[in-house]
Each structure stands twice: as structure tokens, then as C-alpha cells.
Design a protein that fits this description.
Blueprint: H1 3-13, H2 19-27, H3 32-36, H4 38-46, H5 55-66, E1 80-84, H6 90-95, E2 98-105, E3 108-116, E4 122-128, E5 134-140, H7 142-151, H8 161-171, H9 183-195, H10 201-208, H11 212-220
Antiparallel strand pairs: 1-5, 2-3, 3-4, 4-5
The structure holds zinc ion.
């Protein structure tokens, strides 16, 4: 199967491609039956792509069929991906082929550029170990990665901690702290206020998944 065909199948499987675009692409292919096997191919071309509630089933089947040929995890990750820290081993599998190209450095201590040694994919990665315990990945074009290296010019996705937490809020769930004055919480509330002094207590509470009164207590520490 061509590299482009594999990439397109994965784009659909990982939900980075609309189902009607995928359907149109599918019908224009000539060699897929041979590459995917008759059973899966017939299932794909006879599937009703307007049936949104069953889409996940066909996506999952396709991913399972493609997975044995993987040499790295890059193609399986959505363009904007959550990789939990130490949860189901996904982080180990993803980082197994990644090499750190450079770090943004303080005050953006969380921000890194990685490149896959196997497929060459570049990723900007936010290491969010305070509230969500996740890595957030954004797929990059080579030209964007080159600009980071040559000019220290980083894309805006994770450039503030507020933006990082907004991604977490949309795609993940905050960790539940037993200590309401945990240092991770204190530092995060203080960083958000430092980054944007007019951010409200309610906005901070919303980003961190805690109450406004807890934010007031966090901000009064130190
Ligand atoms: Zn890769």
C-alpha cells in the first residue's frame, strides 16, 4: 500500500478526516481491495457514512487492521492529541521513537519540540504534569519545526499555560487532588494570574476544575 494511502486511512481512523471526504477518496482508489483484504474492503465500501453513531466501529476496525504494520505511533495520533502520563503505556510507545530537538525553556518550562526518528514527524509537546497529568501533542509541518529551531519562533498552541489548560479542559479530565493546597495547584493558579493579571478567579477555577473559593485560597498562599 502506498504511504499516502496508509496516511489517509489513518487520518480517517483517528478522526482527522470527515467521513464524506473519506468516502469520496475511498471510491477513487483502485488497489485497496488487494491491500486491505476482501472482507474489510467490502465492509468499508458498503458502510453508510451518514450513520454517525456507527462511525466509531468502522474507524476502530480499520485501526485494528492497520496497527500490525506500524513502525511508530505518530500516524495513529490525532493532529491535536492527548497522551496520558503513565496510564496505559501509550506514552512509552509514543516516546519510544521520539527524539527531543529542543526545549522552549523558562518561563515556558512545559514546551518542547520532538521529532520521530522513524517517520520524521515533528511534534510540539506540552508536558502538563500539574493538573491533568497529560502530554498534549500538536502535529507540525516541517517548515514550522524549522522556524522553531532557526528562529526560536514557536507556534501559539501551547505558548501560555492558560492555552495548555484550555486544551486539557477540552480533551481531558483534571486529576483530583486530595490536598486542596497542593503545590501543583498553588503554582498553577499563580502562573495563570502572572501570565494574564486580569484573568478572573472564576476563569482560573474553570481551567483547573476547582471552585472559586479554592482558587482564592491558592492565590493567598505565599
Ligand atoms: Zn513516527
Amino acid at each position: 500500500m502506498s504511504r499516502t494511502a496508509v496516511a489517509t486511512l489513518w487520518r480517517f481512523a483517528r478522526q482527522d478526516m470527515f467521513s464524506d471526504d473519506f468516502e469520496a477518496w475511498l471510491y477513487a482508489q483502485e488497489d485497496l481491495e488487494e491491500d486491505l483484504g476482501e472482507e474489510l474492503y467490502i465492509e468499508l465500501i458498503s458502510f453508510d457514512y451518514r450513520n454517525q453513531s456507527e462511525l466509531f466501529v468502522i474507524r476502530e476496525k480499520l485501526a485494528m487492521a492497520l496497527r500490525p504494520s506500524l513502525k511508530c505511533e505518530c500516524v495513529t495520533l490525532p493532529d491535536l492529541a492527548v497522551v496520558p502520563m503513565g496510564f496505559d503505556g501509550l506514552d512509552d510507545r509514543v516516546f519510544a521513537t521520539l527524539e527531543r530537538v529542543c526545549d522552549h525553556g523558562p518561563p515556558q518550562w512545559w514546551l518542547h519540540l520532538f521529532r520521530c526518528a522513524t517517520c520524521g514527524q515533528n511534534w510540539v509537546v506540552a508536558q502538563e504534569e500539574r493538573i491533568f497529568d497529560d502530554y498534549f501533542f500538536r502535529r507540525l509541518q516541517q517548515s514550522t519545526a524549522d522556524k522553531i529551531v532557526a528562529e526560536c519562533s514557536w507556534p501559539s498552541d501551547f505558548i501560555t499555560y492558560e492555552r495548555v489548560l484550555k486544551v486539557g479542559q477540552a480533551l481531558s479530565k483534571p486529576f483530583r487532588f486530595t490536598d486542596p493546597l497542593s503545590l501543583s495547584l498553588v503554582w498553577t493558579a499563580q502562573d495563570l494570574r502572572r501570565e494574564r493579571p486580569d484573568i478572573t478567579t472564576e476563569e482560573i477555577a474553570d481551567l483547573m476544575g476547582i471552585s472559586s473559593s479554592q482558587v482564592d485560597r491558592l492565590l493567598s498562599v505565599g
